[in-house]
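Colleagues,

For the teaching module next term, I've prepared a clean inverse folding example: a structure given as tokens, and then the sequence designed for it. I'd like students to try predicting residues themselves before seeing the answer, so please don't circulate the second half yet.
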């Protein structure tokens, strides 16, 4: 009973950004049909280690990377290089509301599977293309991966420590953040297009560029540059807001503190046992603390190193000042709040018995996200989809399999 129940999505994507879009829609109740290459499937299936282990502890051929973005889908293995395979995709597109693809610019046009071709068989089709640089511009046909877009967009330039400290310089975000942000933006775009279509506006093409999304995500840093012409300074784990707003190493592990205003700063100083830092004329208000950042931060670093993280978190939290542990993944999943929100779930899996997953973070009162299904095996649903959706007989399906058009 998800919010998108009744919406059919044809998924011609692989790796990360595209599959995340369709997984999100599947989580919300859409019927997602994932088209994969016979024999190999989505490249993400092999992008390990790590690989999933079966219930006996033996390693399978399914990478964790694939498991992260392909639940709540059906898999059909189609050779889109064959005429028969192209015909099947066209027929599936005619029965779908949305098509998502992330091939290089022009690739699907060679197969008659581009937007203009499929628009002829389904004028209401919403066709979302996700590419590195977009459908237009001098770099449109170039390949690229997340790190390239973090670099070219300027994302790396605002991450990392300043050049004048050890290890300083532009830093890539650890995860494939531009892929993930592009996926979320694509979901917004698709749902906006569905709304437009349902209002009588018909289908349309959506052109999503990872480079565009990477630049847009720099947000106020980019806007500040546009109105000042000043290149944003990298501050490592320090923020651009109030002071302090950064991580601090304690005697055992690190914490992160954000003091957003003068009232919080006073309570913070009392909580750490140094009320004189509030009375100090160099630090008594926000602009002065920012101006004297290089003086106050070393003072605070020395204070925090003296005691364990729990001591400081308890004291600062009791004062009503935002604070938290700097967690690794194991520690994050042990956080009481994350447990209370049930962000880690176990779902059935045909090989592993159960599969731990990260829950969808969207929470609805009337249409909750529920009923997760494991990422499908390659071609697991080929017969089911062709029979139920296209009305093909067992004989017709067998012929297609013999010809190599499907698997």
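(Answer key — instructors only)
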């Amino acid at each position: 009973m998800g919010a998108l129940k009744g919406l059919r999505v044809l998924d011609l994507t692989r790796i990360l950004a595209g599959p995340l879009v369709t997984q999100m829609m599947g989580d919300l109740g859409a019927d997602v049909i994932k088209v994969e290459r016979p024999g190999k499937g989505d490249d993400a299936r092999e992008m390990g280690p790590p690989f999933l282990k079966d219930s006996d502890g033996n390693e399978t051929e399914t990478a964790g990377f694939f498991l992260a973005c392909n639940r709540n889908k059906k898999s059909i293995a189609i050779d889109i290089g064959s005429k028969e395979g192209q015909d099947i995709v066209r027929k599936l597109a005619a029965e779908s509301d949305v098509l998502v693809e992330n091939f290089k610019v022009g690739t699907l046009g060679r197969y008659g599977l581009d937007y203009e071709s499929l628009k002829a068989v389904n004028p209401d089709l919403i066709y979302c293309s996700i590419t590195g640089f977009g459908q237009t511009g001098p770099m449109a046909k170039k390949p690229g991966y997340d790190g390239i877009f973090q670099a070219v967009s300027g994302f790396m330039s605002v991450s990392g420590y300043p050049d004048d400290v050890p290890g300083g310089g532009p830093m890539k975000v650890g995860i494939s953040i531009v892929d993930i942000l592009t996926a979320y933006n694509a979901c917004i775009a698709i749902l906006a297009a569905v709304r437009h279509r349902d209002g009588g506006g018909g289908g349309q093409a959506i052109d999503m560029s990872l480079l565009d999304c990477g630049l847009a995500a720099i947000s106020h840093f980019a806007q500040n540059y546009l109105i000042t012409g000043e290149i944003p300074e990298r501050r490592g784990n320090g923020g651009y807001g109030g002071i302090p707003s950064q991580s601090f190493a304690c005697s055992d592990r690190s914490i992160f503190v954000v003091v957003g205003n003068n009232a919080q700063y006073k309570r913070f100083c009392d909580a750490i046992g140094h009320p004189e830092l509030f009375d100090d004329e160099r630090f008594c208000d926000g602009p002065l603390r920012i101006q004297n950042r290089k003086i106050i931060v070393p003072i605070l670093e020395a204070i925090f190193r003296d005691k364990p993280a729990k001591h400081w978190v308890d004291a600062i939290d009791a004062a009503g000042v935002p604070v938290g542990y700097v967690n690794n993944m194991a520690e994050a999943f042990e956080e009481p709040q994350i447990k209370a929100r049930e962000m880690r779930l176990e779902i059935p899996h045909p090989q592993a018995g159960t599969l731990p997953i990260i829950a969808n973070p969207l929470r609805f009162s009337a249409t909750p996200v529920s009923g997760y299904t494991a990422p499908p095996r390659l071609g697991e649903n080929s017969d089911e989809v062709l029979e139920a959706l296209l009305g093909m007989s067992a004989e017709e399906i067998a012929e297609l399999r013999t010809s190599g058009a499907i698997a």
